[in-house]
Amino acid sequence: MLSLAACSSDASANGDCNVGISMPTRSLERWINDGEQLQKQLEEADCTVDLQYADNKTSQQISQIQNQIAGGAQVLVIAPIDGEALGPVLDQAKKQDAVVISYDRLIEGTENVDYLATFDNFQVGELQGKYIEEQLGLADGAGPFNFEPFTGSPDDPNAGFFFSGAWDVLLPYVENGQLVVRSGKSPASNKDWASIGIPGWASDKAQAEMDNRLSSFYTGSDKVDAILSPNDSLAIGIIASLNSASYSPGDEYPIITGQDADKANVKAILDGKQSMTVLKDTRELGDRVFQMIQSIIAGDEPETTDTETYDNGKKVVPAFVLTPLVVTKDDVQTKLIDSGFIDAKDVGL
């Protein structure tokens, strides 16, 4: 860091700012928004920017990062596909004195991560769990209800945080019988979350999994009452499965959670096919990373808010942590449209 800081002030004065951005995929709307927003901010600040998407392939992400290092990147902004697979390529980055910012997801198993910018991902899951708790009246003793939990991609470190936040709220109700997981796909503890993970956060895989659960465990008049979906991509697949099984919006339609406020899911919320989503305003995250990069290039220490929580197995990574928000049908207008996060026309308003 000292060697970078020593040369960064001169580089900044000369308008020399070289940043590599590595995003996991273009298949999810949020990553497109994240990457393009940050690229635009940096280019407007006269930075050279190499933005790459890795098609959810770890080998491709590693190759792209290697090219960015070879291209002289001073700062690498990386949202890892596999949180534990980047150690060797970040060794190369360290030899070049590049500063590494772990974006949204924690890069694990290496000392060569300088900063993390993320949302409180445990709180994301907690908000989803509390929403189900409140809507079903679980704290007041209501039940039993049929309930099916889903978790995210097993190679995504954030997926464990999401599930832990939700499971801390919901597991007691599973254990006392107020929530009945008819499929049996109920992790015994937070540590077991990956046992029901959906690889790559793929909508089609979530749909296939929900199809299987419905056809195997919900025959006749048996209906599912609530579904824990950790993000909007899985929720879209789950909704498609419910549609195929002749579920329709109304009083008996299941509660379905989500995350990211993707346009298709906001439309589903307005149509009564999804109950809520958790907004992680990627504009705020991009703004924070942009400020971090500005500080690094100027030779200053970026601002962080948490220096204790994010242990990647080799070090505790200093982090700036942002706060997520619940969005329901009642506040789509105020939280998403009025704020400019999405356009009304994109969700049929």
Question: What does the model show?
Answer:
Helices cover 41% and strands 14% of the residues. The protein is built from 11 helices and 12 strands. It has a 6-stranded parallel β-sheet with strand order 2-1-3-4-5-11, with helices on both faces. The longest helix has 19 residues. The chain is globular.
Beta-strand share of residues? 5-15%
The chain-level structural class is alpha/beta
Please outline the major beta sheet.
Answer: 6 strands, parallel
Rg, rounded, reads: 21 Å
Number of helices: 11
With strands numbered from the N-terminus, the spatial order across the biggest sheet is 2-1-3-4-5-11
The end-to-end distance, rounded to whole angstroms, is: 49 Å
Features:
single chain; 349 residues; alpha/beta; six-stranded parallel beta sheet; four-stranded parallel beta sheet; 11 helices; 12 strands; 14% strand; disordered N terminus
Please provide a brief summary of the model.
This protein has 349 residues and is of the alpha/beta class.
Mind sketching the topology for me?
Layout: H1 2-13, E1 18-23, H2 29-44, E2 48-53, H3 58-70, E3 75-78, H4 87-95, E4 99-103, E5 115-119, H5 121-136, E6 145-149, H6 157-175, E7 179-180, H7 203-217, E8 226-228, H8 232-244, E9 255-256, H9 263-270, E10 276-279, H10 282-297, E11 319-322, E12 325-328, H11 332-337
Parallel strand pairs: 1-2, 1-3, 3-4, 4-5, 5-11, 6-7, 6-8, 8-9
Antiparallel strand pairs: 10-12
Helix pairs in contact: 2-10, 5-6, 7-8
